[in-house]
Amino acid sequence: MFDSIKQLTDAVKPAATILSDRLSVTNHAAITNEMVDALASTAAFGADADIRGTARWIIRSLAAAKGIRPASIHDLYMAMGRGDVGGFTVPAINVRAMAYDTARAVIRSASRLNAGAFIFEIARSEIGYTEQRPHEYAAIVLAAALREGHQGPIFIQGDHVQTNAKKYNSPDRDKELETIRALIKEEIAAGFYNIDIDTSTLVDLSKATLDEQQEVNVSLAADFAAFIRRNEPPGVTVSIGGEIGEVGGKNSDVHELHAYMTGFNRKLKEHGSAFIGLSKISVQTGTAHGGFVNADGSVRKDVAIDLKTLEELSRVAREDYRLAGAVQHGASTLPPDAFDAFPRVGACEIHLATDFQNMVYEHPQFPADLKAEMYAWTREHAVEERKPKDTDEQFIYKARKKAIGPFKKRMWSVGEAAARAIGQSLEERFTFLMRQLKIEGTAAAVATFVVVPQVPLDRDAEIVAAGGKITAAEKKAEGLAD
């Protein structure tokens, strides 16, 4: 990790000329693995905002020079909706623990399979407990892609940009909505050109009709979609997803899909007739985030997914609304033989998270003393996660994610041998899943349909996002002025 701006910029000089507002790569061969590793660590753990923000800006600039830029998957999904391409399910992978090593494992798997249709994502809740704000998350993903020699766009997604129902139904409603708008702006500025709006927490199944049940859901989703369209950069059409019903709740059906889409499209048109709508729709088919946990802390494998409903919802989404299809959530803990079904039934996207976190915690090379400390912290600081009937094993399984943020630096520092072993296990799992989901060879489809935007990179914006500010005098003092 670099300790100062001068140390950081001196290290990069063999590869690039750094000016106040831009970086120009002069020698691609001089971008070494050690340089990228140090930049990634500095982007996450630098001593102050100036160092962290500058490291993130340099990562983004070096990656862009290699053709690695954040992009929207919208046009690929529109092609899927038209029937121009298909037969695969895009994995959206939530990177929580050991983010740099995990992201590198994803990239290695994709490169091995010549896969381009895959997404990195992080949910609103995960941003909090993993202590990864959008600009940091994007920088680490791009550093991983740079480190592993990736070619082409990177899709980064805001997963579950979700309304908190308790706060919405309280005097804090306006504050809650403004918090979500601020998060959307932050994500777009960081290069999250894929955003899943999740106002499904406000579906009211006690209402008499489907339209009434979905009314708040569709109205708020359309409001946020219009807000995204007003804030997306020139040349970018953010891929927006909607959600019919909360994951873990009642299974969705076609009638709800029609009620949601009809209401959403009507409400969005009221904001502006030219606004582009959704590219996909998330549904509930019988899974739950994190899986269903047994008393001993293991995960049930006998989960009955309603594949017939998923297939029907995907078909109707494409044929009636020209969306890519339906999105499956809460799937990472399913048994291995379940995954090849998703491309068969036409699911356009599948969200995968908890099992990769589990693999890190439970890997034989993960330091036992560190895990013990994290579990002790969980028992003391995450008691709100414990349900009255939970065994200790169930509680730890569900709550240990809350320790990822407080122990983030320690998890990044488990040692080279342990990091390599854990990364190899993750890579094997990602490769298996990508094959089952049939994304092998999809780099060609991405190259055909996806336009990668040339969005300007702003060092000052990265510093501000890292929690700091910079003045012209400070730039001059650092030797970064023109």
Describe the structure.
The chain is α/β, with parallel strands linked by helices. The protein has 2 domains: 5-67 and 457-477, no CATH class; 70-366 and 414-449, Aldolase class I (TIM Barrel). It is 50% helix and 10% strand. It has helices at residues 5-12, 33-45, 49-65, 74-82, 99-113, 124-129, 134-147, 165-168, 173-190, 210-231, 254-271, 307-321, 341-344, 354-362, 368-381, 392-399, 408-412, 416-436, 443-449, 459-465, 472-477, and strands at residues 16-18, 23-25, 70-71, 90-94, 119-123, 154-162, 194-198, 239-243, 280-283, 326-328, 349-352. Helix 2 (33-45) runs antiparallel to helix 7, helix 3 packs across helix 20 (459-465) and helix 5 crosses helix 18. The protein is globular, with a radius of gyration of 22 Å. The protein starts with a helix and ends in a 5-residue tail after the last helix.
Strand order of the largest sheet: 4-5-6-7-8-9-10-11
**What is the CATH T-level topology of the largest domain?**
TIM Barrel
DSSP strand tally: 11
Which stretches are poorly predicted, pLDDT < 50 over at least 5 residues? 471-482
Task: Note the topology.
Layout (H helix, E strand, L loop, with lengths): L4 H8 L3 E3 L4 E3 L7 H13 L3 H17 L4 E2 L2 H9 L7 E5 L4 H15 L5 E5 H6 L4 H14 L6 E9 L2 H4 L4 H18 L3 E5 L11 H22 L7 E5 L10 H18 L8 E4 L23 H15 L4 E3 L12 H4 L4 E4 L1 H9 L5 H14 L10 H8 L8 H5 L3 H21 L6 H7 L9 H7 L6 H6 L5
Parallel strand pairs: 3-6, 4-5, 4-11, 5-6, 6-7, 7-8, 8-9, 9-10, 10-11
Antiparallel strand pairs: 1-2
